[in-house]
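Researcher: I'm preparing a figure for a lab meeting and need a structural model of a single chain. I don't have an experimental structure, so a prediction will have to do for now. The sequence is pasted below. Please return the structure as C-alpha cells so I can convert it later.
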Amino acid sequence: MTERAPVGLYAEYRKGLKSPAVEELFDLVVYRPVAFLFVKLIRGTRVTPNQLTFLSLIFGVLGGMSLAVGTPAALDAAGVFIILYNVVDCSDGQLARMNGTGTHLGRILDGVADYVVSLACYLGIGIGFAGASDNPPLMWCLTAAAGISNAVQSGLLDYYRNRYLDASGIRANVLGEEQQGFREEFAALRVVKGRHFERFLIGTYLLYSGVQLRLTGGKGRPAKRLSGAEAEEIRSGRVLMHCWTYLGPTTQWTLLIVCAFAGRLDIYLWGIAVAGNVLAVVMMIAQRLFGAHPAVQEW
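Model: Understood. Here is the structure written out cell by cell.
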C-alpha cells in the first residue's frame, strides 16, 4: 500500500500558512518546508521559540560579519549563514504555533532580530564591498539606498498583505486586532515587578502600530461577510497580491544569497535600489488601475 504520511505532513504544513496568496514564493517552496521538517524534529524537546529566534539572530549576524570580510570564501560563508538564518527565522513561529506557546513578546523579539540582521548585513556589505571598491563614496551611497529601499519595500508588502487579508473578510482588521492583544499583555506586565525590557518592547510596538493605524485609517473594524460578487472581486486581486510578494524580505535575502555565492554584491545593491523600486512604483499604479473592488484598492 502507498504510504499516506507525506499527505498528512503536507496538510499540516499548509495549515500553518496565512494564505498562499500572501506568502513569498521562496518561503513556500524552500525555507518554510525545510523549517517545518526541522521543527518536527525538535518538537518535544526543551527548545523554545525564543531560543530559535536567538539562534537565527546569531546566524544572521555571522552572515553580516562574513560579508564584512569580503573575500570569496567569506562571501560563500555569508550565503550559507543567511540560508540558515532564513530557515531558523521561519521555524520559531512554526514551533510556537505547533506547541501553542506563541506570545506577543516573542513576535516582537522576532521582528527586532530581523532588523538587527538587516543592519548587520548592510553594514557588512558597506565594509566588505563598498569600502573596498574603486569608488567607496558612491558604493556606500548605493548601499545606504539599497538598505532604505529594502525597508520601504518590505513595509509596502506588509501593508498590502494586511489590507488584502482585511478586505477578504476572513478576519478582523489586522492591526486593530493585534493592538488589543498587545495592550492586554502590556497591562498584565505593568503589575509585575521587573520585566522592564519586555514592557519597553511592547510599549514601543504599541506606539509603532498606533502610527500605522492612523496612517491607514484603520479603526479595528470587525470582519465582514462579502457577497458572492464581492468575494470574486477580492479573489481577482490575488495576482496583484502575488506580485507584491516579490518585494518581500525573503526574496531580497535570496537575491543576496545568490549574489554572495557569485561574488557580485553590486548586482544585489542595484537590484534592490533600482529594480525593486521600479517594481514598487509599477505595483502601486497597477493597484489603482486593476484593483476592481474598492476594498482591494485600499489594501
